[in-house]
Design goal:
Elements: H1 9-17, H2 28-38, E1 44-50, H3 68-71, E2 76-78, E3 85-87, H4 91-94, E4 100-106, H5 113-122, H6 136-144, E5 154-158, E6 180-182, H7 198-218, H8 222-238, H9 253-259, H10 263-276, E7 281-286, H11 294-320, E8 327-332, E9 336-337, E10 349-350, E11 354-360, E12 367-369, E13 371-372, E14 379-381, H12 386-396, E15 404-406, E16 412-414, H13 424-427
Parallel strand pairs: 1-7, 1-8, 4-12, 5-6, 5-7
Antiparallel strand pairs: 2-3, 4-11, 8-11, 9-10, 13-14, 15-16
Length: 428
């Protein structure tokens, strides 16, 4: 599929004449979504990343009968799925559990933030085999993305990610599958408007491209290739009307209000806009889940309404637009928190037993997979490792997780390492 295959130039001209690409996009998105469906649209994925490691007990695996030092200050509430309860701080999400599969048996080996982030994004332990492995966003970009699509196939949004550049690191897949990070969603994407008239700008861009190509031909290096690839991606984005998907001011006010005027709500809204125009992977970043002390726990507790509003609106909006069946929504962090509240009033790192959530995208919803003990300290039924999780996510997205990719040095590496089993109850 080339960059014009979703809508023809004539259709773009028609939309422009109708003002769909100017004052608003209410007429643009349904038309584009319909065209994408006709062209055989593949699945998309939105990862809601809870950085720092959210407590499973304070979110999706409450223990109302445990001692207070374990259950904490929150109670459990019923959900739209019979027999399933979650934390009272997520009442709007609770009404959507018919779409969700809660994986309460996550059990992984990494309890260090940096290593666990890399592990949960790639399915490979850091340093394993001396290779930099691509994260899930880069894998989806490579397997489902369109090479000539004018927008990036992998976008990360939320608070600045300067400390965690590896979240968008494409590893051996190369710079074409690097994430575009759009941290400040209060404004449209920077530097998209040409600095001169169209003809002059195109002439300048052509000269730069020729210089880049000649330099790359003479001085073959990864850095030169990365720079040239980034330049080409930027040019496609600048020349595409679809870059307006990044401008949330074009979204009707009722939807901006529904998602919430905060960094997480805006990130969720942007994710919906991007998958609607064909971006296959968007990661929405939410910070502050590193709750070692009561003060830090209180801060994230204050952010629960942001999570509840943004996540629930995203899922219900996707469902109303007919996009949820083709969009996998993942809620997770790098690990969980200790069942026992520590002496500082918080919870520490814990990778032995914790939870992730899958919604839409072909997931058999309204169920819980695996079970932890009465205190949430260990998995007593069906542990789920990182490889199992990644194999399941890939399968839901239509990606062959056993596929081997040839690296630049000719070494074949599987998308998901050997030993992972698809969770068949989730896939159906």
């Amino acid at each position: 599929m080339n960059s014009e295959s979703v809508l023809t130039r004539r259709e773009w001209a028609q939309l422009s004449s109708l003002g769909a690409l100017g004052a608003g996009l209410s007429g643009w998105f349904p038309r584009l979504a319909q065209a994408a469906t006709k062209s055989g649209k593949h699945k998309s994925c939105i990862l809601l990343w809870m950085d720092g490691g959210p407590s499973h007990i304070d979110t999706f695996d409450p223990k109302p009968d445990a001692p207070e030092c374990v259950r904490g200050e929150f109670t459990a509430i019923d959900t739209s799925a019979p027999g399933i309860q979650i934390c009272e701080k997520l009442p709007k999400v609770a009404r959507l559990m018919q779409h969700a599969a809660i994986l309460r048996g996550m059990s992984t080996e990494e309890a260090d933030h940096g290593r666990a982030r890399m592990y949960m994004h790639s399915g490979y332990k850091p340093g394993q085999g001396g290779v930099t492995y691509p994260g899930l966003g880069s894998i989806v970009s490579a397997e489902l993305g369109e090479p000539d699509f004018p927008l990036p196939n992998f976008v990360v949004t939320g608070r600045p990610l300067y400390k965690y550049d590896f979240l968008g690191n494409p590893g051996f897949l190369g710079p074409r599958h690097q994430a575009l990070v759009h941290a400040n969603t209060t404004k449209k994407l920077d530097n998209l408007d040409p600095l001169a008239g169209e003809r002059e700008f195109n002439d300048r861009a052509s000269v730069v491209d020729q210089l880049e190509t000649a330099f790359q031909r003479t001085y073959k290096s990864d850095a030169a290739n990365a720079h040239h690839t980034t330049f080409q991606r930027a040019m496609r984005l600048m020349r595409s009307d679809r870059s307006q998907a990044f401008d949330l001011s074009l979204e009707p006010a009722k939807w901006r209000e529904a998602y919430g005027d905060n960094y997480f709500g805006r990130g969720c809204l942007l994710a919906r806009r991007l998958v609607e125009v064909g971006v296959p992977f968007v990661e929405v970043y939410m910070s502050n889940w590193d709750t070692h002390e009561k003060k830090s726990a209180d801060e994230i507790h204050a952010d629960f309404p942001l999570l509840d509003q943004g996540m629930s609106t995203l899922v219900s909006d996707l469902a109303e637009r007919g996009l949820l069946d083709d969009t996998l929504v993942i809620w997770m962090g790098e690990f969980g928190r200790t069942p026992q509240i520590n002496r500082n009033g918080g919870r520490d790192h814990y990778s032995k037993a914790w939870s992730t959530v899958l919604l839409g995208g072909g997931v058999r919803g309204g169920q819980v997979i695996s079970r932890t003990d009465k205190d949430g300290a260990s998995v007593v039924d069906r542990p789920i490792g990182v490889k199992d999780f990644m194999a399941t996510v890939c399968t839901l997205l239509g990606i062959n997780h056993t596929k081997q990719i040839q690296t630049a040095v000719g070494r074949p590496i599987r998308i998901v390492d050997t030993g992972g089993e698809v969770i068949k109850e989730v896939v159906g």
